Amino acid sequence: MLLRIPGLLTLVIWTIIISLFVLFLIGSILLYSLAKKYHNDKHTSDAEVRLMYACSYIGFVVTALYACLMVVLMRRIALAIGIVKEAARAVGKIPFLILLPIVEVVGVVLFLIPWVIYVICLATSGKNETKDYYGLKYNQYVYDKNTKWAFLYMLFCWFWTSQFIIAIGQLVIALSVTAFYFTHDKSSIGNSTAFWVRRWPFGSAVLAAAQSFR
């Protein structure tokens, strides 16, 4: 609701952007003044003076490029602000989306429990052998080739499953916002939209959005 207050989001975004410009400018000025101070200091070498001047000039160039970037991207920034406002409206209508990351964390934890058990079983399946290193004896687990490939497979399972859970959350958010945007009657949108998307994550959501838009 705060993001939807007229002018508030624009004020916040442009305050951040202009603040970065001011920080770049102040930093460059301070570097230049420090370079002049080094120039007047007899205990400072010429290399240090040249380096400080070079850093100040680089700072001024970066500040100028940042200012040009602000001017060029003004329309893009305004478009991004409008998109964030529309997203805020969608989240306001579907507040369950705020809790969706918690649901994803629960899913990852439920997968992590059996995954850790399997990895521990693999880790203890090696053969304990005594090694000798220049008279120093120590114990080491030695694994065969199949066990090493099993470790790589478990690592692949972790990366694939965790990213799959995150991707499902991204799809739910994307399709929920799509359903909100293309539905004319916004009163029909609510938390049930997110659960409806979970049941039909692909075709039904897109088809319903297209029909509402038409």
Would you write up a description of this structure?
- The protein is mainly alpha-helical.
- The protein folds into 2 domains: 8-90; 94-213, no CATH class.
- The protein is built from 7 helices and 2 strands; from the N terminus they run ααααββααα.
- It has helices at residues 8-40, 46-72, 74-93, 96-123, 145-182, 191-199, 203-213; strands at residues 127-133, 136-142.
- It has a two-stranded antiparallel ribbon with strand order 1-2.
- Strand 1 (127-133) and strand 2 (136-142) form a beta hairpin.
- Helix 1 packs antiparallel against helix 2 (46-72) and helix 5 (145-182) crosses helix 6.
- The protein is flat and about 70 Å long.
Q: Tell me, what's the shape?
A: flat
Q: Mind summarizing the main beta sheet? A: 2 strands, antiparallel
Poorly predicted sequence stretches spanning 5 or more consecutive residues: none
Number of helices: 7
Elements, N to C (H/E) = HHHHEEHHH
What is the average of the pLDDT values? 82
Task: List how many beta strands DSSP finds.
Answer: 2
Instruction: Classify the beta-strand content into a percent band.
Output: 5-15%
- Give the class from helix and strand content and strand pairing: mainly alpha
Order of the strands making up the biggest sheet: 1-2
Tally of separate domains: 2
Distance N to C terminus: 29 Å
Q: What's the alpha carbon Rg, rounded to whole Å? A: 29 Å
The residue fraction in helices comes out at over 70%
